Amino acid sequence: MPQKVRKAVIPAAGLGTRFLPVTRAVPKPLLPVLDRPLIHYAVAEAAAAGIDQIAMVLSPGDDAIADYFRPNVRLERAFGERGDAVRLAQQKEINGLAEITVLEQTVARGLGHAVLMARDFVGDEPFAVFLPDDLIWSVTPAIAQLARISEEHGGSVVAAKRVPQEAIPNLGIIDAESVGHGVHRVRGLVEKPPLEKAPSDLAIIGRYILTPGVFDRIEYGSAGALGEIQLTDAIAAAIGVEPVHACEFEGDHIDAGTPAGMLAATIYEARRRPEFSDAVAALGLTRA
Ligand code: G1P
Fold first, then answer.
1. CB-based contacts of 267: which residues, under 8 Å, 6+ apart?
2. How does pLDDT run across 109-160, given as a tens digit for each residue?
3. Of 15, 19, 133, 204, which is best to mutate to test ligand 1, by the most ligand atoms within 8 angstroms of its C-beta?
4. For the domain with range 7-282, which CATH number is right: 3.40.50.300, 3.40.50.12780, 3.90.550.10, 2.60.40.10?
5. Cis peptide bond prior to 32, omega within 30° of 0
């Protein structure tokens, strides 16, 4: 029987180079898409999929990212005293999304190394990874779509999407054969290939279901693209040892990790939230 996924790791210790200069002072996961920080969307997606034990891998000093999910005593007391039950419930809902564990990554050695920090937290069970820059809006949470494939086939699953040529050298690219319904059996993975070496236009998007075997593959693997310890290489090392699938998920994806991406994500989110309909109309945008 495949084990149910209960735990997630959210690596959030990057330097935020794609979003300078604001990230000199504010960690990127706290930049807002409308009224919620980026990382709220990842945690809410996990919670919607029944994953409520979450480890955040943070840079030293970035505790504010985890504090966002803890009770805010000052706000709760103020709303309680005013009898503002609606606002009080809204605050408590955020605290209740997940049980958060904070882990530190003291050196920026890559995504694989960040995930390795969560080895003890994960233990010996399959787990999810969310890259919080990647926002996905879907009917079934994207991570639940991946989890279903991992329950059916076993092994690891990466989220996947077809991307335009210019995006290929910045992403993990998948060599795979379709086995139907958006599911692909993965034959190879290559991190940030030059366009002429890319096996396809199918890219890894920041959602993963991984088996605990990935930790040894990270630990004993060598540095890859950009001289960093790449998660993609550790997953590629599992091909032939355990099943590895890619899930072309149903839903809309935006990489909000750049100013232009965050602008697109903000407009997308505003168009689907009724309370922003006047602002959307005033900007000449149409509702989603
Ligand atoms: C990471 C992964 C890459 C993946 C991308 C998706 O890259 O290494 O395989 O395609 O996330 O967002 P990064 O954005 O950290 O450079």
1. 285
2. 999 999 999 999 999 999 999 999 999 999 999 999 999 999 999 999 999 9
3. 204
4. 3.90.550.10
5. no
